[in-house]
Amino acid sequence: MKSLEELEKIRKETLDKINLRKERTGTRIAVGMATCGIAAGARPVMMAILDELSKRNIVDVIVVETGCIGMCKLEPLVDVYEPGKEKVTYAKVDEDKARQIVVEHVINGHPIKEWTIENYL
Amino acid sequence: MLYRSHVMICAGTGCTSSNSDKVAEAFSEEIMKKGLEKEIKVVRTGCFGLCELGPVVVIYPEGVFYSKVKPEYIPEIVEEHLLKGRPVKKYIYGESLEKGEIKPLEDTPFFRKQRRVALRNCGVINPEDINEAIAFDAYKALGKVLTSMNPKDVIDEIKNSGLRGRGGGGFPTGIKWEFAYNQKDMPKYVVCNADEGDPGAFMDRSVLEGDPHSVLEAMAIAGYAIGANYGYIYVRAEYPLAVKRLKIAIEQARDYGLLGKNIFNKGFDFDIEIRLGAGAFVCGEETALLNSVMGKRGEPRPRPPFPAVKGVWEKPTIINNVETYANVPIIILNGSEWFKSMGTEKSKGTKVFALGGKINNTGLVEVPMGTTLREIIYEIGGGIPNGKKFKAAQTGGPSGGCIPEEHLDTPIDYDSLINIGSMMGSGGLIVMDEDNCMVDIAKFFLEFTVDESCGKCAPCRIGTRRMLELLNKITSGKGEEGDIEKLETLANTIKATALCGLGQTAPNPVLSTIKYFRDEYEAHIKEKRCPAGVCQSLLKFNINPDKCRSCGICAKNCPTNAISGKPKQPYVIDQDKCIKCGTCIEKCPFDAIYKK
Q1: pLDDT greater than 80 at residue B450
Q2: Of B151, B207, B197, which is closest to residue B174 (Cα–Cα)?
């Protein structure tokens, strides 16, 4: 170890990977993972979200699984909770949509209105 | 790769002994089976403190706390919680559920009043991965010290923080460092005392197992402050897991150049070597420890000269305890004013206590100095099992004393404990209820010190043995008037004349139990009675005439024919013949026989 910067680099890199043990304030993405969700393909959707986040080095977003909300025919459902904002729920999400939701909504802050659950009701 | 969830499994000694290894394996296996290994990380971490409820598992990001986890629960937890996102409530730590909802761990009674400073990373990081330690600020304080402070600044910061030795003595750490700093003799040494020997104390072990880098970093900081380039960690061989993790930590720190030559390119060299102790209690005494480090017999020597003048290899040396070191980096990072904001006027910061004995939440807790014993025992510790009544708490292990109910509300710090006849010690806290006999407790601790006396000085070698003989006499029903006074005279003489801390403090358990529970001693001596019903030879077996149905089973089974009786009349026990074997109690179908 030759400099403080070197230490700081290791610190940041590792913290990014493990800070979900401490901070719980950022955006939360919840993927519906009851039997219905899994059957409709929620797992590849979640993997796509995780992959997109890690590719873009976004570390303050937490990805969780959630249960069935009763609208099984609209699965896979994905909820995005941003601090201080209304929850946005996307229906019939696939891998491509999931990646775009991450980029457009979670990173750039523009919810994709055409895909939200309201369009299917 | 980013993981969406971390499964933290306690791999401290407590949970390991309740099979947390199997639990960790089961998690890895089950996660593989479900194909979740790219999303979920399994981490073995340090002690969470709730050893009573081990093995414990915490799952992030939700922070759900599972207790008493068995390998057979794992498939369900993985399927429900990790796959479907539904925590399995029946396995969750009960205190963290409120009306069926999971509340944050910090809001449970066990954690609410705690302030984890020395244990800050225990249960948070993987102790075998230096990167995780660095992520939570390890070696940042060392960097700060080397790049922006001179040795005198470091010493002033520690002095100003009011940090006192956590091993029991309570000597101000900064002043100790300053003594060594002022010595001209070179080279100097830094020693870490990890010879934790008090029965029931395990806070140092938990720090070494859960966050070994905090100790290595602090030793390097101490080395820079006093002008030393070499350190020894003296750790008991009975702590294999702590030794293993220390070795890994030292190796990783060397790989990163955080130990070794020219650290942070500032021309400062520091390296550390582990010395194993062979389990002698006296080697926790600093001069005996120094002898043992040098390969000599572990015997204390008179002071002065103090180790700061003549320590390892007759050179200036500082010796600090593990927990003391664990506080140092965070004081440097957050500043002495931050540290001073916790605690009481003369005792700053926090203290780790190992709760044991008759208490619900056996385990490890860290509280600000000045917390009362009542808060620790009843709020954090969850009170006494089976609704029994509190009798006393022993602090400081065999060197400390007992604290009776009337002092439960004393704010705990170094000085208040000495005022009420006990001492902080290393932080063992053993709770006793109405079923404990205080004479028996005093005997237990004295047996320990008699056994551990190194035999170098007469007061300790002979005096403590004479005291133990008196206690044996009292508990076997042969006590005489004047025995208590004899005990007191002996105790005070030993305190005044023994060579080292072991002997000087050995009589404390006896003195403090006499002070607060003299009536129990008197009952043993005058009435030949043990009020708590512990001392076997003072117990009397009796038959309750109301419950006895005159079946004669007891008389048939009594090996000494001490029981006699006639049909339709209650049986009686002849006390002269009774050998107190307890067979009759076992055999009686009506629970009519009791001992008192």
Answers
A1: yes
A2: B151
